[in-house]
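Step 1: inspect the first sequence and its tokens.
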Amino acid sequence: MARTSRPSKPKTPVVFNMSDQECLWSKAGVTAPRLCHNAFDCMSCSFDKAMQRKKALGKASAGLEQPGEEYWTRENWMATPVEQRYCRHMLTGRVPMKLCINAYNCASCAYDQMLDDELAAAAGTTTGMAEVAGFEMPPSYYYHSGHTWARVEYGGRIRVGIDDLTARLFGPADEFRLPQLGTAARGGGLELAFSRGGHQARAACPLEGVVVARNPEVLKHAEAANRHPYEEGWLLLLEPTRMQRDLKGLKTGEDSVHWMEGEAQRLSDMITADTGQRLAATGGRVVEDVFGAAPSLNWDKLVDDFLKV
């Protein structure tokens, strides 16, 4: 059926583990209401830097401005009632109760760093899982055309993995070879390597960034990426270098659903042409190991057609 309009992509990144998209400064009552446009990565936010530098209030709000004072100083902030000095992690729902003792200078806050380090190797909860042509996918994730995904984590980091089509098409891997910590991964570069039974494959890293964590579970038990590709089977955590630009080139929302429908049909047609079989499914989902079920399929052709895009 022909479509008359193309679904629009979100104007701001979908951020996980956040209660809403309001800027932390405005949520704390320091500034007028405004939305965050930097995925809550305060340390790289130009507005946050301006606030840290000028401490300008503009209007009295939430009791943070002292009468007769033009600028918000640390002394004035410390004089604010304790119950109004909210930590940004409390404001965003990350922790139930925490007060800031560092004047919102998150970059030098030991507590802030501790929480970010704790989450670096922990996968969050997948929300809104959809069933698309026999494959699972969260439409709120971002997808590279080479069948890898990205999602924006709290603090602006990017978690990366393979999608369900890759996991089911190639089956359980024997080994994953991932970039080392500190490596600059290239957006679209074939940085994610895996192997099975002597066959080799490389998949694209969806965004450009520096590797800050690798999934130790996948490195020890490669099949974890196939069992739970969107959760425990994640591969890398990146500190993105051009997040806004790179996300615009990925598929998300309805666009990603329509794309996956087309990819599933393309795979089905290929299997039928090469083997005379149909794309098998159980309970509405594609079998867990397509290549294992149809070993006459050409591994290298599958890699070229679905991963090297």
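Step 2: inspect the second sequence and its tokens, then contrast the two.
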Amino acid sequence: MKVGFIGLGNVGGKLAGSLQRNGFELTVRDLDRAAAAPFLARGAAWAESPKEMAEAVDLVITCLPSPAASAAVMEAEDGLLAGLSRDKIWLEMSTTDEAEVRRLAGLVEAKGAIPLDGPVSGGCHRAATGNISIFVGGQRAAFERILPALTVMGRRILHTGPLGSASVLKVVTNYLCSVHLVALGEALTVAKAAGMDLGKAYEAIRISSGNSFVHETESQVILNGSYNINFTMDLVLKDMGLFDGLAQRLEVPLEVSPLVLDIFRDGRARYGDRAWSSMIVKRLEDTCGLELRAPGFPAEMTDDEPEEPGAEVTVGAG
């Protein structure tokens, strides 16, 4: 299978790297050609335009920072739609709006090609090792066709149902991640103010009913002082905005989401668009004059989940 990959950023570059390491014939493209240099040095081809890529490959993957970026790549005069043809597959791995992915999917289907949405969850560190989770919505037959590519990019692969369902579930999980992060900042600050050893507090939360994936990952980079989770404030606000917009369209009255959005807007105003998302806890650190630090946490985040060969694949009913 010939695979094209557009968007070689923090997550996309790592997913594309997994494809290349596992022997897939890869064509790449990014607005920053320097991001493609390591792939080209290892034998990947370069596409001069999205159209050229779509014409050359069987599966084209986009992993881009916003719905607007995906639309531009798809609908430009020399975009992917201009090069797609019957039975080719477009896999949208960006975190995007489900209504927008369905709109673009209709244009893809008009070309005789097959659209799938396939966002990932689990963090950049897991994307690098092929240990990430991937949600996929769309035709089951197409899902099964690209399964060999999916299983080298991710460890847990879930077919979520019809097209757009994966994008809905992705913004739901990202919303929960943001809520958990704000709550952890409050919990750790109260523990520190009460005189607790934060290394012990980390472990107590980890082995208790208060544990979460966010605690096991992001608390590490808070307690070691790096805050480096490879995810930034502007991306949190983009993802939470997608969740909030979906809820508004569905007329679901939310109470927690608007508050957490305001907290992250304040964090962005204080620390900047490109500040690491985990720096949201600094709002309380700065206000209380406390540092949430614990000895013994390495500068690089560790992954408590063991890597095992193979992938866990769940095919849904859609």
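Step 3: confirm your contrast with the notes below.
The two ends are 24 Å apart (CA to CA). The chain has a mean pLDDT of 93.
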